[in-house]
Amino acid sequence: MRKQTKNNLITFGGTAVLCVLMAVLSGLGVLDNKTNGLLVPIGIYIILAISLNLTVGILGELSLGHAGFMCIGAFVSGTFSLVFQETIQPVWLRFALAMILGGVMAAVFGILIGIPALRLRGDYLAIVTLGFGEIMKSLAMNIYLTADKNGLHFGFTVPPENIDDETKRELLKGPIGMAAPQDTNFWIVLIVLLICLAVLMLFIDSKSGRACMAVRDNYIAAQSVGINVTKYRIMAFVLSAAVAGIAGGLYSHSISLLTARKFDYNLSILILVFVVLGGLGSLRGSIIATIILYALPELFLREAGNLRMLLYAIVLIAMMLWTNAPFCIRLRERIGASAPMQKLKGFLKKDKSAGGAA
Q1: pLDDT digits 0-9 by tens, 190-235
Q2: 65-92 average pLDDT score
Q3: Could you tell me whether strands 143-148 and 151-156 are parallel, antiparallel, or unpaired per DSSP bridges?
Q4: pLDDT at residue 97 is higher than 90
Q5: Which of 215, 234, 273, 280 is buried deepest, with most CB atoms within 10 A?
Q6: pLDDT category, 50, cuts 50, 70, 90?
Q7: Closest-CA residue to 161 (of 176, 146, 174, 151)
């Protein structure tokens, strides 16, 4: 078995076991209400982190507009569920169609923004994607959509007029947002997370994924050996956007009121922090970093009051130094080369060899 395949199976299996364990503990009533309330958001943020890692870690391009794709998926899927809430049954079919539509629309916008933006690199691409995310948030805050017996009525910046008051149903209310059906639960998030994780792993381990990594490592060399750089960059960017749109659909169906203010640049930066601290190109690292960094302030630092974010920042800085500082890298190498660690590695290797021989 190839090393990469083995690592993927370990990551996928470990994620599945951990999620199922948490779901079982939640069903048995072992977890308190605060922890139960974190399960769905953590799952959604993991999906966002692994999708952004495809762009930042595998493709090597800095994107600061990931919240924009999440915003598209959230509002498109939420609007679809509100419009067809009564007509499409059963609920799981309508919900699945809403998720797919949210992902497809995010992918479409990924193509539209990716074709011109991916001609840029580095800071210029980051600025363009940041602007895209802010534009999506502003658009969502100014859209009004109302349904009555005559159909759907659209308004931009102001509510639509000439609405039948008896049958009026407000779907999108501008800055107030929307209230999509709350269909999301942890089991659904778990299934979607595992599907997205498997798709991303298969893509990264495919010919296309290896081409993206070649472009990341040396753009000019990749072009010189005949790799279609534009094609593979757009492919990875669109897949990342589609997964973010699906995560947005899950999010819109998990809260009572969805507002566009949530999808600002701070959200994009937060997801980027998960990716960077977990390790660029490491899906396993993104999963671990998201769990730690999202749960830490809520479970352990909430009692610190005003010092909560200060302690959170200290933890982020410490993790960044441990990951990237030359002194910490040398320290990790020294620990790995120490006699106790070498004995432990030899013991594990010996057990593995004995198990294979048996």
Answers
A1: 999 999 999 999 999 889 889 989 988 888 888 888 888 888 889 9
A2: 89
A3: antiparallel
A4: yes
A5: 215
A6: very high
A7: 146
Strand order, beta sheet including 151-156:
151-156, 143-148, 169-173
Mean pLDDT value across the chain:
84
Give dist(CA 128, CA 123) in Å, integer. 9
Which amino acid is present at 149? K
CA angle 251, 294, 320 (to 5 degrees): 130
Q: Which helix (H) or strand (E) holds 89?
A: none
pLDDT digits 0-9 by tens, 109-155? 999 988 888 777 777 888 888 898 999 999 989 888 888 888 888 88
Tokens of 325: 């500082």
241, 67 Cβ separation under 8 angstroms: no
Distance CA 127, CA 242 (A): 21
Point out which residues pair with 153 in neighbouring strands.
Answer: 146
H-only helix segments in the chain: 3-27, 33-53, 66-83, 91-117, 123-141, 186-204, 207-217, 219-224, 229-252, 265-278, 283-299, 308-324, 326-337, 339-357
* Mean pLDDT value across residues 267-281: 86
Q: What is the pLDDT of residues 229-240, one digit of tens each?
A: 888 889 999 999
**Which residue in 220, 222, 205, 250 sits closest to 48, CA to CA?**
250
Q: What angle do CA 238, 202, 279 make, to 5 degrees?
A: 75
The Cα 43–Cα 204 span in angstroms is 21
- Report the run of H or E that residue 146 belongs to, with start and end: strand 143-148
Residues pairing with 151 in the sheet: 148
Is the CA virtual torsion 198, 201, 205, 210 positive or negative? Answer: positive
CA-atom Rg of the chain in angstroms: 22
